[in-house]
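Retro notes, item 3 of 5
We never archived the inputs for the nicotinamide-adenine-dinucleotide complex last cycle. Fixing that now. Sequence and ligand:
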Amino acid sequence: MTFETVHVGLVGREYDVLIGPDLIATAGARIADMLTVKKVAIVTDENVAGLHLATLQASLDAAGVAHSALTLPAGESTKRWPEFTKTVEWLLEQKVERNGLVIALGGGVIGDLVGFAASVLRRGVRFVQIPTSLLAQVDSSVGGKTGINTDQGKNLVGAFHQPSLVLADTSILSTLTERDFLAGYGEVVKYGLLGDAAFFDWLEVNAPKMAAGDMDARVYAVKRSVEMKAEIVMRDETEQGDRALLNLGHTFCHALEKATGYSDRLLHGEGVAIGCALAFELSSRMGLCSQEDPSRVRAHLREMGMKTDVTDIPGDLPDAEALLTLMGQDKKVLDGKLRFILARGIGQAFVTSDVPREAVLSVLNDALRG
Ligand code: NAD
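Structure as it came back at the time:
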């Protein structure tokens, strides 16, 4: 099977996203073409290193590219200052020069951390994203947002730094746990919900076989998601307007993630899925979309075996008022006003600050009651 290409045409910072099976095994030759000095530094995490680093290293060897690798612990807690400084110092030790190249091999955590490290190293070096989770393939590896978490919240420190190439190898999704795969699917479904009703229709029919491993379905779902992300990023690279649409479900998600301490109780993509269902519920109650829309969203998430409702999150949650306060700490708050992504129907999302506090509270109260 060949691969698909999505071009991200940002003038002066353009790059291709290649999507298809076995791209890691052929990465070496592609990367060699980008280098004057044939050497790269790879940063990955423990889980991915055990499963896929050797394949990447073999393909670099075959292409005559020297390489070294830093393996960090897996998980969200790696996206913090200590691992960031460790990565930057290590890259300097590897003598990555101004025209050198860094490879981020991993999920969104590694992509965000390494992209940020590449953005500040010698005031910016190139990096290649090899996203290994579904979430990273359809979302975090494309668009140039990089960063880390701090005690004040998620993704509060970072930079816009576009990769030079993205290799989304759809074969390696097979080694993801079912939970991580489905969490990534939360971001896939988001694209249909925010801007492409026909894609949501397609997902309702085809997503179960995609989850079961059908490669054509995987390639199509990743490609369509990346196309949508690329289109939005090209219109609004630094989120002055339309890019906020990509945050459908995220205002709710970030409050729930904060309430659960960014722990294993709720993965980011799971929070996005629940957040999308809540955003449609809010839209319906505000009379923006039909009552059938939130039911259809929830039915699809349920069919996929995903967390769908707030009550699917294990353990206690704070009350609705407290969750609303946590939303207010979201960095997507502009001028102190909460910004929501709501929808006039499936595939018709829009950005608004015009949401009555009471409407949000009533949705949250009902959601917490189950
Ligand atoms: P992650 O990087 O922690 O990966 C999830 C888990 O899957 C980890 O344990 C990882 O080791 C494992 N894994 C990854 N690939 C694997 C594979 N092929 N086989 C087996 N295990 C594998 O998390 P994630 O869900 O990929 O990404 C979440 C992060 O992405 C969050 O920090 C979020 O803020 C960020 N994000 C960033 C953007 C952006 O635009 N930059 C967008 C969305 C999300």
